[in-house]
Specification:
single chain; 226 residues; 2 domains; two-stranded antiparallel sheet; 4 strands
């Protein structure tokens, strides 16, 4: 199943795009978490094994905590992410895009007892394939979904001869456009750079290659560079 994007609208009218995660990245994240839990239990068994019956009792308590409380605590404390989800850049959120709460984290994880039926997470897999946003039964009941975490990676700004203020006052949208140009310019041809810089000639007071250099200087000025 291909990953899809769910668009929701906040009460303020802002559109949020939630890139829903499909079964494959979710299964990989689960496998990582399973490996971590298995490692914890193996380490604990070596320590508690020398304590006899008392150690066995403690091990059973730890077994319950690792397999049932581990995902709830991780998702509740770490903004909807277990170590496995963090490694795969996934996060659990509410269906409206809000951060997941403790109650929702408890419900979606306790519902795994149903998703596991009849074996191998069959119910959860079927639900994820049928639902347009890949939600298993636990997500449907809890009102949650698993999404890809967007990577806010800032692009390098093009080099310039210095810093210069614009010739005219700039509106916020114009400032954003100039910064976006400076970020994308290294991937553009010189001809395309000149073409776009000529559009901003009123702000730079120049055209051609000089306009490109001045536009880079204005971008540096907007970014507070010296």
């Amino acid at each position: 199943m291909l990953d899809t994007v769910r668009e929701v609208h906040t009460p303020e009218g802002v559109a949020l795009r939630l890139p829903a995660a499909g079964p494959i990245p979710r299964a990989l994240a689960w496998a990582i978490d399973f490996g971590i839990r298995l490692g914890l239990l193996m380490a604990a068994s070596m320590v508690l094994g020398v304590m006899g019956e008392a150690g066995m009792g403690l091990y059973l308590v730890l077994l319950f905590a690792v397999f049932w409380l581990y995902p709830i605590i991780c998702e509740g404390l770490f903004d909807g992410q277990t170590p496995g989800k963090r490694a795969l850049d996934l996060r659990v959120v509410s269906s409206d895009g809000a951060p997941v709460g403790w109650l929702a984290a408890c419900v979606r994880n306790l519902m795994r007892t149903v998703d596991m039926l009849p074996f191998g997470y069959a119910c959860g897999l079927v639900s994820g394939l049928v639902d347009p946003w890949g939600r298993r039964l636990g997500d449907l009941v809890a009102g949650t979904m698993v999404v890809h975490v967007p990577k806010n990676r800032r692009l390098p700004v093009m080099e310039g001869d210095g810093v210069m203020a614009p010739a005219l006052p700039l509106r916020p949208a114009e400032q954003q456009a100039i910064i976006a140009f400076a970020e994308r310019a290294p991937r553009l041809t010189p001809e395309r750079q000149v073409e776009l810089a000529d559009i901003a000639a009123p702000a730079t007071g120049a055209q051609g290659g000089e306009g490109v250099r001045r536009l880079a200087g204005i971008a540096h000025w907007l970014l507070g560079k010296r």
